[in-house]
């Protein structure tokens, strides 16, 4: 029987959607005064609106290489997705990207208001750490602590939030190629890296295997960003500021702006090759991760 990756991705995403639905349902307390319904509704709007669920699926597949218990991995994967959703809710705010639509629907601040969107993002972020601290994630508190600390670092000043700040500052200053690579590894790469690394940590894989999955995540993180930038340029070529390395529309630094589409495509081919080499020792067990890497490089949107 041939392996249907698209079907597999859809059913893994559905599994995450169902688990996220449960988690957010359980946030609604009986007393409106302690659990404001409007905030829960805004959190649901930001988290249950049809994302691809790439990060949780990467975590589940990394953990599956080492036979982890899905009952532990799914909540950890949901925690990561909640952080991703929070970042999108805040990124869409007028003070940042000022977007009206996300995943084809009104952004949280459009459907509610700015203050509610800020609070919904805050509550999604903090809920993620509540989940990671729960015994369901792992019986060993040292594993939960490690997952929690690494998640804080991936999302915080040395990771996504720091990368977003550097990106915002790029509107006012020229970036070198090395600087753009660094800020993108922080802004988008850190959560993708964490997805793969945390799967291996949760499964208590050997340090060598944790390192391999970490490197795989780093490569996937860079490939994801390059593919995203290429999609933007293909959608509106005038957005490419070759001379400045900036996406002219958003004023943000991009590698495709600096290197040009052709070199970017060549780098993507090389990255996919590197990613596949890292998966070789896992043979057939890594077929979904292999397909995911290919999907990230060639995805249509
Ligand atoms: C606000 C702290 C803070 C950080 C925001 C991730 C981020 C940092 C901003 C998003 C800006 C953006 C559109 C970056 C391009 C890469 C990216 C993260 C795309 C969205 O991720 P997907 O494609 O989205 O996985 P879905 O909707 O499928 O979850």
Automatic annotation (TrEMBL):
PROSITE patterns: POLYPRENYL_SYNTHASE_1, POLYPRENYL_SYNTHASE_2. Its cofactor is Mg(2+). It comes from the Bacteria. Pfam families: polyprenyl_synt. Keywords: Isoprene biosynthesis, Magnesium, Metal-binding, Transferase. The keyword Glycosyltransferase does not apply. The keyword Mitochondrion does not apply. Belongs to the FPP/GGPP synthase family. This is Farnesyl diphosphate synthase. It comes from Roseibium denhamense. The lineage of its organism: Bacteria, Pseudomonadati, Pseudomonadota, Alphaproteobacteria, Hyphomicrobiales.
